[in-house]
């Protein structure tokens, strides 16, 4: 029995460099922290972006002009590559991982929702780390999440997580553009706070994803409103996850 379960979402900007290529040492640092938590009897569900970028690395420039179809193709090619990367890194730390590709209907009441819960609970019971990502190869209409921030928030609520950690490439929510001299990190946020005035100049989306800071804050507040403390923090820094679990002030905390 695990003392605590957390959901960690890692965005495309965290795992890529300025040339939009996946940086393996970043993934390794991520998995190393998950392995350390496992030794503390804290189990993780990982929500990971990256399949589209991984597909682009394999295929290169696509001849497909339709943006949606192009994304489907990149994702279909990239998903197994991402899982191979994760499988090998988790194996290096003596751990197992599994792929979960939900669509929006899996969170609606009924048999799909039950199947989703049963699958994740079974994996956690076996000490296997579920790695969830939206199935971009087929989720293109009504079944599409707005982004993986929404998916992470929904999984955290569905699985009664104790914490949700959303990793991005900046330290959290700022009062203005993160690079501006007069901009300050906002360390604590309530679920009901309206912070749109801070989002206007701070809403950079993922390069190959869809979620910017506005999305992260919205879904963080939704999770927090359901009594799941949520953190928006810099995943490129060492030990960010461990620091959050240890109660060290880092990033933006969204909580009741």
TrEMBL record:
Residues 5-234 form the Aspartate/glutamate/uridylate kinase domain. It catalyses: L-glutamate + ATP = L-glutamyl 5-phosphate + ADP. It is found in: Cytoplasm. Its EC number is 2.7.2.11. GO terms for biological process: L-proline biosynthetic process. It is an enzyme of class 2 (transferase). This is Glutamate 5-kinase. It comes from Flaviramulus basaltis.
């Amino acid at each position: 029995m695990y003392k605590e379960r957390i959901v960690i979402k890692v965005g495309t900007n965290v795992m890529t460099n300025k040339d939009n290529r996946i940086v393996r040492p970043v993934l390794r640092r991520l998995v190393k922290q998950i392995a350390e938590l496992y030794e503390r009897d804290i189990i993780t569900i990982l929500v990971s972006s990256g399949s589209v970028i991984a597909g682009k690395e394999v295929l290169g420039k696509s001849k497909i002009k339709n943006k949606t179809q192009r994304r489907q193709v990149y994702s279909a090619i990239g998903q197994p590559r991402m899982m191979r990367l994760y499988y090998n890194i988790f194996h290096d730390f003596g751990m197992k991982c599994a792929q979960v590709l939900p669509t929006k209907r899996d969170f609606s009441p009924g048999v799909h929702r039950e199947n989703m819960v049963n699958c994740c609970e079974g994996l956690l019971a076996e000490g296997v780390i579920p790695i969830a990502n939206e199935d971009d190869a087929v989720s293109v209409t009504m079944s599409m999440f707005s982004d993986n921030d929404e998916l992470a928030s929904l999984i955290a609520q569905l699985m009664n997580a104790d914490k949700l950690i959303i990793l991005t490439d900046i330290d959290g929510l700022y009062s203005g553009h993160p690079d501006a001299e007069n901009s300050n990190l906002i360390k604590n946020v309530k679920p009901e706070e309206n912070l749109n005035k801070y989002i206007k100049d701070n809403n950079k989306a993922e390069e190959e994803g869809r979620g910017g800071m506005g999305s992260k804050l919205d879904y963080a507040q939704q999770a927090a409103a359901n009594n799941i403390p949520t953190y928006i923090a810099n995943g490129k820094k060492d030990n960010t996850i461990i620091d959050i679990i240890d109660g060290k002030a880092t990033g933006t905390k969204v909580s009741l």
